[in-house]
Amino acid sequence: MIIDVPQGKDPIGYVWGEMVPGIGVAAAAFSLSVYEHSTLGLREFEAARLRIAQINGCLFCQDWRTERDGVKVEPEFADAVTDWRDTDLFDERTRLAAEYAERYATDHHGLDDDFWARMFDHYTQPEVVELSMSIGSWLAFGRLNRVLGLDTACVLPGH
After folding, report:
1. Which domains does the chain have, with CATH numbers?
2. What sign does the dihedral 37-41-42-45 (CA atoms) show?
3. pLDDT of 127-141, one tens digit each?
4. Nearest CA among 70, 74, 113, 79 for reference residue 98
């Protein structure tokens, strides 16, 4: 970790809450709202989230699995996300979520009419906006945690 955290302080709570309370508390609320208020299916949600985690290299984010009503994706899901183009474990919505996350993070200028036509064949406009906001949250905050070395100490509140 490159940030000095006082002894006995939780690194995430300290950095996100105490160091920059005007920004960090709001950022944490946004980050948590992505999980609490998502209307997306678990598989497409996790495909996009895990693809961003893989791109960011955030150790905690790659190990985390979102749970809904006691259900998590299967153990081989993360490997399928890596191989999103060819895996037979994904339906088209899940595959598109992984593709969108990757392109959003690495080639957002390359999102062309063909991509959007495929996307809107399977997602509504509100779903695309929600997925975009979620991806943006994971990209920004997962990368922040990785760059600052917080990903080795990251524990989400309540878990």
Report:
1. 11-148 (1.20.1290.10)
2. negative
3. 999 999 999 999 999
4. 79
